[in-house]
Write a structure and sequence with these properties.
Blueprint (H helix, E strand, L loop, with lengths): L17 H13 L13 H19 L12 E7 L18 H8 L2 E7 L5 H10 L3 H4 L16 H7 L3 E5 L17 E3 L17 H15 L4 E7 L12 H4 L4 H22 L6 E7 L4 E2 L5 E2 L6 H4 E7 L8 E8 L3 H8 L14 H4 L9 E5 L1 H6 L4 E6 L2 E5 L4 E4 L15 H18 L12 H9 L22 H16 L2 H14 L4 H13 L3 H14 L4 H13 L3 H14 L4 H13 L3 H14 L4 H13 L3 H14 L4 H13 L3 H14 L3 H13 L3 H14 L6 H19 L1
Helix pairs in contact: 7-9, 16-17, 17-18, 18-19, 19-20, 20-21, 20-22, 21-22, 22-23, 23-24, 24-25, 24-26, 25-26, 26-27, 27-28, 28-29, 29-30
């Protein structure tokens, strides 16, 4: 292969020129016909000159206006499209797309045809977006295991310091404030709906709900200069677009999720128009990473660093400030977005970035492709396989792996022909460039591994991420992920069937995962969690006990086993297991929490308080923990202290049903049944489900409303997934007693 840069083959990258052609046709239609005039004889030389001049003028007229008008008074709306491939959007050449709103922004703004993220995972990619640094510098290499260090000046912090009102509206737990991306935001809306014990929140929310939160904020703040970030997460596994997109995209649910997102993106743009602020708002739409849909034996993202997971949409739109219909063909990166936004706001001067301002490209100036660092540590940290690092330089893409890879993206955009064996000298040169990039950008002092609680582990798991732990980068050779795709596919299918509600199939595949890799603790945990979802707590306990015998002393299995013992009301075993964890790690949050919870259930309030206080030293802002602590205070006769905690939590989390539920229990203990009933009803209204049905039924019976109590106890039995738990068995017996009393009345 020649080291000389080869010209990209037309049509190899879908949509690279489609929008430019569309814009030109539109421009041609917009030019009125000139009125006919009587012909006059004109010398040939003059005619030639006029034709040349006219042709040049026509080219100028048909070319999108390249005026770029920086303006420090612009609002900024940054929309991040999670898990969104560029080649599944209409303006990028995908004929089957239904993305009229993204297409509108591209047709009336600037579309970057070849934008790459640095890592195909949500938290690391957003960290790069908001700091204009690669993971080598900001230190966030994976979801959940890392938190962005406060030393970084984020885009939000810079704009807040310049007088912008800042707000973020998040759709996935991967970007929860605990992972550091809330820096600089006056408001960081990462509150999701609540579920059950230790999995307090649903892990995501859909575009309609996230949009509604932003619209509500906009109603109150549209008069202020603002920087807002709206994060859409919908095109993420499981692909399940709501009606009417579900039927329309029955055979292409991933496309349906993108269409659903685009619909609410359009309604959000319309809200700006209704507020008369669209003409003074810079709108930036960018994907955080793409998605593999079976290419190279990958489903989902994060396992490999092929283009399907790295190439993302990037569109800039600002009425009267940017060209219309301009397409930038050269390669740019997600790390270039932040300096570009600041440049357009006249805030970039005197600041340094790893990324580059794209202002010249916005003006239509030609610039060479930008070299790009790429990585994924997910194979190592989730499965114990090798991480993958790489560089894209010109048309060449090099991936450092146990079995290295080299591709010519111009000739082979689907990355089918690995040229490494034939072009070892070229690969060696790229390896040296990669080493230099790593040496230049690595900042060992910032970033760092974060220990996940059970709640955090489960919430990441519910998003499709395996779990595991951050691993040290040293050590011997690890397997190449390319050689592990059969094992990987077993897990993917297990998750797929679990998402779809086909629990027997999911159970079959999770058992296969254990057979494949009995040394991976999370394989046992995932099967146990499936059993919990099926209401089979005892089967879950059996699986975890089996894992504990195979991997004695494993904290992941032991901590989960302790929580299952609590669910099964095997409280002495729960305490003993949690204590075993604490002997290994006295600061293990979940063991402290479970010890306290078990002691609460045994009525040992004083002992429980001690464990909760130790846990609060580790996670002082954990709402679940604070609620348990306040509950213990009430039981110990310290109701005034508890009330302060409840009132503060209610103010901070007005839609958290657990707060009202616990306050109801507190009022009940104080024999104020009216206040207890009122608070429990609020909990039920916020979260109608088997937990609140059960609790409300018990309270109604105590207030003498037996008919309503019977109704809600029946609702509990109709909706609970519990099958063999002591609570369900007791509820069935109680219902018979209550119905007998009603009959007697």
């Amino acid at each position: 292969m020649s080291k000389k840069k080869r010209k990209r083959q037309a049509g190899k990258r879908p949509g690279a020129s489609a929008q430019a052609q569309t814009s030109q046709k539109t421009a041609e239609k917009a030019i009125p016909e000139a009125p006919k005039r009587r012909a006059k004889k004109i010398p040939i030389l003059v005619i030639s000159f006029v034709l040349i001049a006219a042709g040049a003028a026509a080219v100028i007229l048909l070319r999108p206006k390249s005026r770029v008008k920086p303006d420090s008074d612009l609002n900024v709306l940054l929309i991040t499209l999670d898990t969104t491939r560029a080649d599944r959007i209409g303006c990028y050449g995908y004929a089957r797309a239904k993305t009229p709103n993204l297409d509108f922004l591209a047709a009336n703004g600037v579309r970057f045809a070849d934008c790459y993220c640095q890592v195909p995972l949500t938290a690391p990619s957003h960290s790069s977006l908001f700091t204009s640094t690669t993971p080598l510098s900001h230190g966030v290499h994976n979801n959940g295991f890392y938190s962005l260090a406060p030393e970084f000046d984020t885009l939000a912090e810079i704009l807040k310091n310049q007088g912008f009102k800042t707000a973020a509206f998040i759709s996935s737990f991967s970007l929860d404030s605990r992972f550091g991306l809330d820096q600089g935001f006056d408001s960081y809306d990462d509150t999701f709906e609540y579920e059950e014990f230790l999995k307090s929140f649903r892990s995501e929310r859909t575009a309609d709900k996230t949009s509604a939160s932003f619209w509500k904020w906009l109603d109150e703040n549209s008069g202020r200069k603002f920087f807002c970030w709206v994060h859409y997460f919908d095109p993420h596994l499981p692909y399940s677009p709501p009606p009417p997109f579900k039927a329309e995209f029955a055979d292409r649910p991933y496309d349906g999720e993108i269409a659903f997102t685009d619909y609410y993106l359009g309604k959000t743009i319309e809200k700006l128009r209704e507020k008369n602020i669209l003409d003074r708002t810079l709108v930036v739409c960018v994907g955080d990473h793409g998605e593999a849909l079976g290419e190279k034996n990958e489903v989902d993202h994060g396992l490999f660093i092929y283009d399907v997971s790295l190439r993302v949409p990037l569109i800039f739109y600002a009425e009267n400030h940017l060209p219309k219909g301009l397409v930038v063909p050269s390669r740019v990166r997600v790390i270039d977005v932040m300096p570009t936004i600041l440049d357009l706001l006249k805030e970039a001067q005197g600041r340094s970035f790893q990324g580059a301002s794209l202002r010249p490209q916005l003006k239509g100036k030609k610039r060479p492709d930008l070299s790009t660092y790429i990585e994924t540590y997910m194979p190592r940290e989730y499965y114990g396989w090798s991480e993958l690092l790489g560089i894209i330089d010109g048309d060449l893409k090099y991936i450092r792996a146990p079995k290295p890879e080299l591709y010519d993206l111009a000739q082979d955009p689907e990355e089918i022909r690995n040229l490494y064996a034939k072009e070892t000298a070229v690969a060696a040169g790229l390896e040296e460039k990669l080493k230099a990039m790593i040496a230049e950008q690595t900042s060992p002092a910032v970033g760092g591994a974060k220990t996940l609680s059970l709640e955090e582990q489960e919430r990441l798991s519910s998003l499709g991420y395996v779990g595991g732990q951050a691993l040290d980068s040293s050590g011997g050779a690890l397997p190449d992920p390319k050689d592990k795709t059969s094992e990987y596919s077993v897990y993917v299918y297990a998750k797929k069937y679990e998402y779809e509600g086909d629990y027997p199939k999911a159970e079959e595949y999770y058992k296969q995962a254990i057979a494949f890799s009995p040394e991976v603790a999370w394989n046992y945990v995932h099967l146990a969690l499936l059993y919990r979802r099926m209401g089979k707590i005892n089967e879950g306990i059996d699986v975890l006990e089996s894992g504990n015998r195979k991997l004695p002393g494993n904290l992941i299995i032991l901590s989960r086993l302790a929580s299952f013992y609590v669910r099964g009301q095997r409280l002495d075993e729960a305490i003993a297991t949690a204590q075993a964890v604490l002997r290994i790690d006295p600061q293990y949050f979940d063991a402290l929490y479970i010890s306290g919870l078990s002691l609460v259930n045994l009525g040992k309030w004083d002992e429980a308080l001690g464990y909760f206080e130790r846990a609060m030293d580790i996670e002082p802002e954990n709402t679940s923990l604070e609620l348990q602590y306040a509950f213990c205070l009430v039981a110990n006769g310290r109701g005034a202290e508890a009330m302060k905690i409840y009132e503060r939590l209610k103010k901070d989390n007005p839609r958290d049903y657990r707060i009202y539920q616990d306050m109801a229990i507190m009022y009940e203990s104080l024999h104020d049944l009216n206040q207890a009933r009122e608070n429990m009803k609020q909990a039920l209204d916020l979260n109608p489900g088997f937990e609140t049905y059960f609790n409300y039924a018990i309270l109604l019976e105590k207030t003498g409303d037996l008919s309503e109590a019977v109704y809600y106890l029946k609702r509990y039995l109709e909706t609970t997934p519990e099958k063999d738990t002591p609570r369900r068995l007791a509820a069935e017996r109680t219902l018979g007693v209550w119905e007998g009393r009603l009959g007697n009345q």
